[in-house]
């Protein structure tokens, strides 16, 4: 009788230990999933592409982009600083960026790939 009691205690301890290990592993898996999802969402936040990013990638200054887009250099500066711009002006700049990208052998950008602050 005593032997059976001890065995049940040991069995309960094993079961408790197995449960603790299972919960720990599951918690770790959930934590890793959460960490990965926050890293991915942070990457998505960082992937907002601006006119400044496009210009730097092309290795040109504001004046060169303004000349290619047939707009004033101040317009490019305003766009890069997040000021409101008209859609027609944004289209001019976008087309100029894509012409320059094509000259450098880079793939074209869609209009929506660039972050605009449109009026």
Descriptive keywords:
single chain, mainly alpha, 2 domains, 434 Repressor (Amino-terminal Domain), 72% helix, 119 residues, 0% strand
Q: What would your notes on this structure say?
A:
- The chain is mainly α.
- It has 2 domains: 1-46; 51-113, 434 Repressor (Amino-terminal Domain).
- The chain has helices at residues 2-46, 51-58, 62-69, 73-80, 87-103.
- The longest helix is centred in the first third of the chain and has 45 residues, at 2-46.
Choose one word for the global shape: rod-shaped
Rg of Cα set: 29 Å
User: What percentage of amino acids are in beta strands?
Assistant: under 5%
Number of domains: 2
How do the SSEs run, as a string of H and E? HHHHH
Number of helices: 5
The helix content is over 70%
Structural class: mainly alpha
Low-confidence stretches: none
Mean pLDDT: 83
**Largest sheet geometry:** none
Extended strand count: 0
What is the CATH top level name of the largest domain?
Mainly Alpha
Distance between the termini: 86 Å
CATH topology of the largest domain: 434 Repressor (Amino-terminal Domain)
In CATH terms, what is the architecture of the largest domain?
Orthogonal Bundle
């Amino acid at each position: 009788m005593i032997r059976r009691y001890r065995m049940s205690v040991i069995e309960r301890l094993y079961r408790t230990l197995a449960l603790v290990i299972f919960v720990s592993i599951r918690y770790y898996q959930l934590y890793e999933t959460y960490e990965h999802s926050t890293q991915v969402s942070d990457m998505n936040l960082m992937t907002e592409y601006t006119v400044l990013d496009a210009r730097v990638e092309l290795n040109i200054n504001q004046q060169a982009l303004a000349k290619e887009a047939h707009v004033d250099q101040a317009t490019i500066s305003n766009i890069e600083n997040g000021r409101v711009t008209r859609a027609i002006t944004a289209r001019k700049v976008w087309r100029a960026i894509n012409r320059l990208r094509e000259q450098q052998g880079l793939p074209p950008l869609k209009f929506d790939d660039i972050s605009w602050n449109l009026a």
